[in-house]
Structure prediction request, 315 residues.
Amino acid sequence: MAREATPGDMPGFFKVLVGDFSKRLRIPPAFAKFFHRTPLPHEVKLQNSEEQCWQVNVVKINNKLFLNKGWKSFVKDNLLEIGDFVFFSYVRRSLFAITVFESNGCVKHVTGKKKQSEATAKNVSDKKRPVVIKIEDTDDEDNDISVEILENVTKVGEKRKRTEFKQSGPAVPDSPKPREGSGNKNVQALKGKEKSLVIERAKSAFKSENPFFMVTIQPSYIGVGHNVNIPLDFVLTHFNQKCKNVILEVPPGDKTWHVKYYVNVSAKRYVQAKLHSRWLDFANENHLAVGDVCVFELINTAQNILRVCIFRLNM
Prediction:
């Protein structure tokens, strides 16, 4: 008998809102595959940081899963807009805790800005057994232009495991040409199509048995503020919490940068994780630009060592 997926088994995922996201939102295929044996409920609940719930239907269209009916109300009531970063954290069967970050990297709070409609503010009962839908296994790639962060749940040991690359050249040139970064006029928004191409290139080229996550460089990551959002679930699951630094290294040469990270707590709940102090040094010395994709591979849990592979937008 198939074992039901538990929160410990489930990675979270996030979406950067681009294009026409208000009517429906695609669920990343890699996340949906976790429900291959235990079907994903036909209806799920989305709970925001203020513990308000919305009931949203899950539909399959052309073998792809979407948040559909009810999603539009969630978008409206939470004042979602292009550029917002929405993190979906799997709590338990049919319930997702949602944290929304604005383009400036801060958590978006809607209380006092707009009243939630009576139709969507109701508490959703857990008593009714949800209808479920079967998910067929598919090899379709996610061509969604939103970003997703997915973690490999394989445990990492103290020793490094060899990483496979299927790319034509090195992820980071030996002598990269200077690229305009912090405070530069060329720190601008990234087009969805460009973002999609570099993400797909990173996905296809990077393979590892170690846990890893991907981050697309946004203007705020190398501009004013220069903090970087990293997946909260990954930090809580894999990082050594006694160590408040991470060590970033970039092959070849494996020069290291000691970067501080922190986890924000609101109302006794973990809400977000970020890299901050000395991150800008790392970004500048590696000539990061908007649209580059950084793959952070955890190779040592005791010291929080992350090997960073950089996929350039302009290569």
Confidence is low (pLDDT under 50) at residues 1-9, 112-189. Residues 192-205 form the longest helix (14 residues). Residues 73 and 119 are 9 Å apart (CA to CA). The radius of gyration is 20 Å.
